[in-house]
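Hi R.,

Here's the input for the magnesium ion complex you asked about:
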Amino acid sequence: MPTTADAGTGRPPEVQRPLWQRIDRTDLARTVFLAACSVAVALGATWPWDRLPVIAVVGLVAGCWPILTEAVRDAVNRRMSMELSMLIAIIAAAAIGEWTTALVITTFVLAAEILEDLSMDRGRGALTDLMTFLPDTVRVRGAGATVTTVPRDQVRPGQTVVVPPGGRIPVDGTVTAGHSTVDQSRITGESLPVDVTVDDTVFAGSVNQVGAVEIRADRVGADSSYGRIMEAVRLAQSSEPPVQRLADRLAAWLVYLALGGALVTYLLTRDLTATISVIVVAGACGIAAGTPLAVLAAIARIARAGAFVKDGAHLEALSTVDTVVFDKTGTLTTGRPTVTRVITVPGGPDEDALLSYAAAAENYSEHPLGRAVVAHAQTLGLPVEASQNFTYSPGLGVSAEVGGRQVTAGNTAFVPGAPASFPNEVATAVHIGVDGRYAGSVLLADEIRPTSSRAVADLHDEGVRTIMITGDSAGTALAVGRAVGVTDVRADLLPEDKTTVIDRERAAGHRLVMVGDGVNDAPALAKADVGIAMGGGTDIARESSDVILVSSDPRDLVTTLRTARRARRIVTFNFIGTVTVDLAGIVLAASGLLSPVVAAFVHVGSETAFILNSARLIPGRQRRTPPR
Ligand code: ADP
Ligand code: MG
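And here is the predicted structure with magnesium ion in place:
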């Protein structure tokens, strides 16, 4: 049996079982027994039979045991709970000889608890259902053509793994040989299988379909998309967002209200039956159970779409956001720029020499611009010397020693003497300085992500403002802004300027999402109300963020935001609905218009309705590709 303990949770994911198998057998037996006792006592009441109280007492003891233990546990934790008030009502009913009433109320409470457990179970199941078992063992290609089979947790980044058709992909990586289609619906939410060939990225947990492929492992174990899902699932299940605490407080207040209302009713009417009805009718279980269910289900639904919310609290923050701040490079654009032109200066190095210098200086760079320069030099077959003393200044550029000369590569602010802009060019410029003198520029064009403008338009439809912030120059930034539909564009920003933008907007009363990918975005991601990282971005951006868009598709941000808002509407509806039903119920019960049994029915009926309302957010089951 494969386990996933190494992927971060320490426990294997549960597989969805059919409904009837998920009900706890003892709970079910107890409820059925109580229902039988209720019927027996109700029917028996029409016949003169003196054993009735015995059946009733046996039933009540059996039925109330779990309610009593819950009530005691809540009392020890100093929490006012539903169980306590129900227990009071049941005991009161039994005390005045209303056996049937006591039994029916108990049956309803037990049935409601089963419903609650089942719906939470389905919510959790929807999350864990996202996970596939990764293969236990992985075939790794060693030196030469030898292929060895090793346990999955021994695979290291950089190794080449071989995945046969039908096999599951064990790592996040890049295809180095072969081509195939892969089903990555569980990881990216993309329902159609995608074609992959050399240089394409694949994710752990997706299924290779038709061809054998070799994959260079980039991220393994807990670092892989799969590992991050496991972590998100673990956190999502254990988090207690503020709305949850609010729900618990409201639930406690409704219990006090019911008990207070009951006391007043008794003092005014001396009618014990009406008093019991008052206690019984007020049920806050709909919000006590419906709130965590809505949070869990929303996180599962968002995960299905390919985004991982690290905590319920972030989901809540997302639902009230009014502004989205986008980074440009790597977020609205693919961050895979290509060199379009090389500009030399009279008396300086020629094109090839300039590119060699630039590539040597950028050799250790993680920045997309740097990587593009290195890749371009390599494609041209230019020599790339080893460099020393590499330093990176986020938002500015890099510097290093190349063959005894000090080479800098970066923007206008970083390379003294570099021109501010090139006329008629929207490309991003990497200026090169050699020994403190401007020596030429490499121009790069970065493709805008095909879904960026759609995502921006959808956000505007949702009434959300958008801002673009970038370390790039104003010319390029405005051109990209125009193409994707963002009008508020702020360029030439250093990482600390990015956080200043966030601080100012927050001080102006806005609630912000920041979306970014780079090292330079990390401080801003941490400062925003919700930081969202592109899955393909840097590790530090992913660490500093609250939500990860695994497939780096900006549209997933829209899905995430919409789902968070829907969850908020559902929870709010449940809050208002519960308070309304409780208040109306208490008034009717106090006036003697509700018998205790009807009161119990109203309580459980409304509770069921609110839980089902939350359950609407649970995503449907996903088509499973059978493992071969
Ligand atoms: P963005 O905010 O759009 O993600 P960055 O803040 O990462 O962009 O970079 C801002 C600018 O700094 C770039 O447009 C580039 O001019 C310069 N720069 C940053 N890193 C490098 C690098 N490694 N090589 C060359 N230029 C760089
Ligand atoms: Mg960026």
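One thing worth noting: The domain at 338-445 is CATH 3.40.1110.10 (Calcium-transporting ATPase, cytoplasmic domain N).

Cheers,
M.
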